[in-house]
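residues and backbone:
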Amino acid sequence: MEEIKKGILVNSGKAKSLFESSKDDHYVMHYRDDTSAFDGVKTESLSGKGEINNKFNAFIMEVLEKNGISTHFVRLLS
């Protein structure tokens, strides 16, 4: 399987960042450990949150694909 590497940051939100990748027409979604409350007034870092969100998203995308619903998901990188 081809190794895909993160490239230039395209966009960043409250808890995830989108990067170009080393593969044409593919992007890398990076889930961060950032948390916020009260409309961003309070922010913290919660160790492991990004990894859990990444795995949960992959699980949901795989379930959708198995049930005939197309998604943007290709594969879990880490």
Strands lie at 6-12, 16-21, 27-31, 34-37, 42-45. The mean pLDDT is 92. The helical segments are 49-66.
